[in-house]
Amino acid sequence: MLSLSNTVLKASRRGDSALDRKLTLYGSTVLGIFATVTENVAFVPEGVPDAVAQQIEDVLQVRIVPVSLAGSSIVGSLLCGNCAGFVVSKYAHPSEIEELREFGDVQPFPSLMNACGNIILANDTAAIVHPLLSDRAVAVIRETMQVDVQRSTIAGLETVGMAGIATNKGVLVHPKVSDAEIAILEDVFGLPVDIGTVNFGSPLIGAGLLANSSGYLAGADTTGHELGRIEDALGFI
Question: Domains of the chain (ranges plus CATH)?
Fold first, then answer.
């Protein structure tokens, strides 16, 4: 684990400004509710200011795509995907789904639990999902996103997409995750798993952070120490 002094030193060696890594969307620090990112693309709500879109593009090295899903701005909650494909709330309009298909396979999510981004934690190779998802829903995730899928919780929470974040370089999760849950995460993702918080102590990592292999953006209330833990866990130090 990093000490605060080591975090500050290593961040200074990178020459990054903490401000460049902090963001609000729609005036909110819960970035993961409003946007979702892969290695190549960031889906953001329509009407995001140009300066915010440019910051996301520059830091994460992605194409910015403004969308509306089911007529809503909570894009990050209603959509989950990776470089292979996406699952989206079954309430999304056909025209919205068709727009997503430019970026990979897209399938409506066959579940009453339609907030895909809140109940799936995934990268390009694996996914942990809500433990009560049906076999059919798990199969759709596996086939559309081309990942290994396992049901689990994080810190006892079934909303695993809110409780953690996974990139192709690392996994960062709720600080109350159990040893048994960490073992599952390490086995499924084959990556190091660390704990942390965002937005001045929030344990809901996935709700407050956007990240891929190129970079990360955290909610504007995230402290320097929290940024250091994020950088360490996701392989930016």
Answer: 4-233 (3.75.10.10)
